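Tokens for DNA-directed RNA polymerase subunit. Go.
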Amino acid sequence: METLFLKLTQADFRVYSAAEILQLSVKEIVNPQTFDLLQNPIPGGLHDPALGPCRQDDRCESCGQSERNCPGHFGHIRLPVPVFNPMFFKTLLQLLKGTCLYCHRINLPTLQLQVFSQRLRLLHLGFLVQAQNLSEKFLNSEQAEETVLSQLEAYIKDVLKYGEKNEASMSKNLLTEIHNTMQKIVSTFSRTKLVCCHCETKNRSLKAEYNCTIVGTLADDKEIKKRPSLKPEAKANNVPSEEAGPVEEVEMEDSSNAHEAGQTPEIEESSVEEMMGESHSDVIAFLKSKHRRCILTPNLARDHLRLVWKNNKEFLVNLFPFLGKIKLSEVPTDVFFLDVIPVPPVRFRPLSVMKDRKFEHAQTSNLANVLRECLTLKELMFDYSKKKATEETTVQGPAITDPSESLTVSMQKVMTLWLRLQARVNVVLDSDLDNISQDKCFGVKQMLEKKDGMFRKHMMGKRVNFAARSVISPDPYIATTEIGIPMVFASKLTYPQRVTAWNVHKLRQMVINGPQKYPGAVSVIDEHGKNVKLSPANLTQREALAKQLLVPDISKTGSKIVCRHLIEGDYLLLNRQPTLHRPSIQAHRARVLPDIKTLRMHYSNCKAYNADFDGDEMNAHMPQCELGRAEASTLACVDNQYLVPKDGTPLAGLIQDHMVAGVALTVRGRFFTRQDYNELVWSAMSDSRNQILTLPPAILKPYPLWTGKQIISTLLLNIIPQGKAPLNLKGKAKIPEKSWVSMSAVDQSILPLELSALESLAMGESTVVFRHGELLQGVLDKAHYGPSPYGLVHCCYELYGGKTAGHLLTCLGRLFTSFLQLTGFSLGVGDILVQKKANKKRKGIIKKSTHVGKTAIEKLMSSTGEELNERNMLLFLKQAHFSPDSFKMAEIDMGMKGETDKIQDSIAKSIMPQGLEQRFPNNSLQLMVQAGAKGSPVNCMQISCLLGQIELEGRRPPLMLSGRSLPSFQPYDVSPKAGGFVTGRFLTGIRPQEYFFHCMAGREGLIDTAVKTSRSGYLQRCLVKHLEGLKVNYDVSVRDSDGSMVQFYYGEDGLDPVESTFLKPALFPFLTENLQALKSSYRKDPWPSDARNKSIRHRWKRISKWNSQAKEKGLWVNRDSSFIEFCKSNAAPNLSETDWTQVVKDGPFKGRALAAEKLCKAWAQLDAEEKTSLKSKQLCPDPVMSLFLPHSQPDIMSEKFHHELNVYCKKGFSKVASETSQEVDQKCFKETINKKLVKAMAHPGEAVGLVCAQSVGEPSTQMTLNTFHFAGRGEMNVTLGIPRLREILMMTSDKIKTPSMDIPVQALPGAREKAEQLRRHLNRITLDKVMQSLKVKITSKRLPSGRGYNHFKLIEARFKFLPQKDIAEFTNLTLKAIVSFVAKRFIGNVDIFFKKEITSQKKSSLLSSGKLRRLAESSDQGKATAEDETAGDNSGLADLADGSGGTEDVEEEPNDGDAAAVKEMQRQHDTQEYEGEDEEKEQVGAEDDGEAENNYAVDENEEPETETDNKNEESNHSNDDSDQEMSRIEDLSQEDREMVTDAKANSFVHDFTFDEKKRRWCTVTFIYDQSRLQLDVRMLLDRAVRQTVVHQVKGISRAFLTQELDNGDSVLHLKTEGINMQEMFKYPNLLDLNKIYCNCIKTMAHTYGVEACNRVIIKEIQSVFGAYGIMVDYRHLSLLADYMTCRGQFDAFNRGCIAYNTSPLQKMTFETTMTFLLNSCVSGMADTLNSPSASLVLGTPVSVGTGCFDVLDSFH
């Protein structure tokens, strides 16, 4: 008998037509009531029994099945009038905009239309290259249109004659091209002129309102654009009589006729022409209406689209492929409208019951609302048709007016209800589409999306059976691979075991024991699949079933299955959430412990799960098949998860007490008697089944004694598998040698050796030596049995496998526990006490520290040139405190912190460790810290020395408005203790103020942890959803689930990070020493026996020869391209010096030298043969790995590894081999390493994408949320942590928070001076940076004006500048230029500030809107752009100053520099957003904010903007200057006179004077009408001074020079804050432009291409992790960068870039489910179910890992 096997292979997305819905439906729903008074479902209601039973005891009227078995049946609701389909509303609007309402054709020229159509057709068939060539080939042709169209047709036939490509093989590149083409067509639609290109008819401009209606507006109507929109109800109730003209009446007639017929009007072939004619006349009436605004009703739009379908069918099918898949519909465009709404079966709309009350499902409520609107609309339409019929039969006379009036009112009511029906239908799909109704429930969109949506809650994550959850508790005696299971779990969890002749006796006894006696069974499954439950009370039944276990069933093959209890040895998958990386789920062997209630786990697994025993809970899952058990035991077992995939370092290791015990056990001088020795060895190996080998004693007389080191050796020799060579190891302990020296060297004369000599010669305890499995020297601590790389356990894992390493950890844990019970360990007060001498020294340092605050402030003030006294110091601190940017305050904090750090260091040195009463190792606290058991030197310092400086976000505690840090300090107190420097310690206690500071830091840590969890969690989710389909294929390449190539070799060398940890040159000596043990692991060759290709050796020789030749020449000359050869040849054009210095200002070569443009154009003119002839004859040989696969031939490896191996064999191998007693051979070593290399290759099926996502996401949880690091004057400020990681991985913008460049300076004579000059030129200089002080004096004066005398306010502002020598340190500007700038530019800017403040005050006083108030605040902050300031100088702003008020519409400028207002408005408009969306909005807001601030900059190269036309002011004061002033001006030079004239030309400037000799000061007197200037003038002037830019280079704010080491040489580097690469290209003779670098990935991609972008991604991620000491393997970062650039551009991990993924289900399970579902429907995409997400959604095995292959087994 054959078994039918059905497998899902593809999921399509399409739309049901109205006819299909009617076919699916079993009943029309007409009643909005659902239940009657007796709670029975009403026939015709939404819970009609025909749709399925809604109670357990009901039967379905359609299929007769019970509630459990009935699949459910659809119903339908007929709408009295058609409505827009809300799912396709936006698509419909775009399509209507691109069509002509008169001739019903697509409004594109015929040729363009055909090219677009055929291009889409070719793309859908898979012809990517041919489709890309169409536009270039035919659109730009100068031939006649008919000729071009015939050529196009011939070209398409020629392409298609070779057969169509496979449509299912959709790739990212193909999808990208389809997406871009469709976007281009849609954007062409939106840009299309309203005049039709075919019939030259002028169409109306269409736009949507409230997602309900489409309004056509006359194009030349300017006023309509400013007319405020009405709400649908208000608009419908106030429709003018002319708007309800012929359009609506025609529409309503059709609708009422359809209503009377009782069915939806359908198209029949016989009446097509007649209907087309009627539809055309109706649409013409809409088009030619004289009204400014006309509503395009759904029936008119539908009729129009039917005619468009007839004219442009082929184009529409290519543009919207889903139209070609619609069934049972003559005109597929009808799916853009709804006549019939499907009603889902009852079982998918269940009632929710709470406290005996029933609540309807959200969908039921929405559908009931639609039904109510339908019934009301039908009644109104019937009333309307009745009145209309009455009017037609009545004799028209002058006295009869009432019927026509009532007819208009009825029409308005019908229109109102039509709009309400549209809104109700919208809510069924998406409740967010209706922003007006209050009584709305979740729509289909809300049920699908977000965490609680159907995809993420019920498809991606599912509830499971056969699982247990409990608190975990530690057990030091249990094995590392075991998990202690309580009896209550063991008797509930079952495993279905198949009965065989080998296990029947055991299973029979279990069946007889039954479900209540352990070990028993719960049920028996027979051959037919029937499950027979065992009765706890019926022993006879159980015995009968036990006897029949092996009795076969004649009618069915197979055997019975017994669902038995969990027993010891069963595998369980243990998981602790959050599951951040692969080791968060591991397989443990069950060990049933009868008297416990919690899960028992070994200490060593804590790090893998990130667990502790303070109440953590874990989940246990029991695999239910042999395949699951096999995978658990071989792949997920704890022993095989010893290394973390992130960087190949160990995860498992002993902790805390075991560390202390290990050091105490192995320290020199620790001896044991025979009894203790045997007892300790036996306690460690009590589960050993073999005879335990013991060692002879170290001391024989007076009685035998064994050392602690010998106990470790005994364990190791017994644990190493038989037949394997024992371990040889030389390593370092964590405890440094100096700690032991200070303990032993009581008299320094005893040890004259230096420390370095002592470590190697005197056999120090920090050097650990194992020889032949015996510990000869050194102390074992965290470095060897903790989670540390290259220690004892790690080496055993590498040589003998995970099982041996796990057993060693188990035995060491038991040994150390027993040893501690024998000796004990305690920590007392004596371990933290300080000697009197050291204490005295500490007090002296603290006493001196009270003055360092004043010293630090004086150092900072010395740069300003001010007099150092108390008053100036207070003023300096106050200015810094109230400065809007925190730069000055941050500088003060850095200066103070530098001084307090010195105090802290000196106190710590005086006490730690020499000043303590007890020294290491007698000091238990020091022993714990040094061994790595617990604590750190900082903890010791806080206990015995001082707490030190308290920091919040890298800064000192902030000041309150009063200038105090706490109320108990004076304002602006400069003493360190007022700034959070705690000199107290825990030993002697801390003061209340110090305690408060300490609590502030503790609270910051709590908040930081809570906030960063969600940030890093979302980041990891984005990574996982993008990378989940990446796996290694059988051709060793890494591909996505759609087969698109990402890497040819995983991580560029194909090696697995976990398997290749010892394949490093530094560890070759260890492998040499343990070659025999290594050989026994790789006895069998991984290659076929005949796979010995002689050409490989020859190829390696060629590569070696080429490398040596290239090295000798000093350059990789042979890597030069043919273009570079052409530039060197005589064929290149002659270039002058000006060609190299002149910069191209526009075009594709913008920013490059003119010479580059000439060379590129000359190269483009060469033909292919000429280009080929210029190629270098000596080509670099291809890498060996590009020609052969490593598992196909020996000696196939990367060039780098091959070189390192050869270097070691030549230089280091012989020395190591001579020191070891084993016979080792160099050839044998190479072969063994080669075998190890092949074994370390990443296996096919390996889910490298997921591992990569976890390896980047999991470490991000360890990083703090420190967004910004302030570095001070001499260094760059950088963004750190998760914010920077999000910038790199989740944003494709070039607007990053701290952009920077780094360019080396060429080592030329005089380069330093030129670089200094360039540095000063690049600095952004605001006016406050060159000012020493600003003094403002305000007086009132009565002056004559037009109609008499007026009171004016005179504002005298005196600007004092810094001396020229101080200015010259940071800029090239002179004082003369600065004074000139003030006169010509700054004065005008001050006036703009004043007027903007007046404007904002008027807005805030006249209007009380919160939105306007926020905009006013933004104006206060002065973040308006320069364009806004200068554009209205001569018009609007002058009027505003006169009090005439502004007429500008505030609503049109919501983003007036206020990012907070933008975000608030976005929140108000869209309350249902994703976390990822919120973050992107923050970034957008920040970018806009930054742009506003930078654009305000006034560059010195611009022409001065003055208020010369500002003559409308009433302050026309008389200009009767004294003779003395006139003579003073005449004494000035011509240039100075012009400057004064320019300043005083402004009507608001009364006087302008300046220092004529040194230009150290200038005074400006402003004059304003006193009644109109009620402002805080001093504040506004301060703000103007801070924000006015005197000089800047675009994009760069600061530059500085640093010395950096490069290959051992010190190289001068120019670093900038901000990016402007084009500016740097102007200095090729000073800067090394070949090494220019910037941290903006987008900029590097645009400037240098995608390969440079790839490297920048890797470098930037490494620098982010490196700041926190986190290492992530290069292979993960390489894969990440390759994925982000595999489409040829920079892609981020956000929903914008996942749109190019070819799996619709993968996109839907990420974010915005409805959007991706709609796009998949419209584009006709199919999911081939290859992605993991698609497999999970449909319940099929994931094709990654062990799911990517099947095993064929022959039963013969």
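The longest helix spans residues 992-1027.
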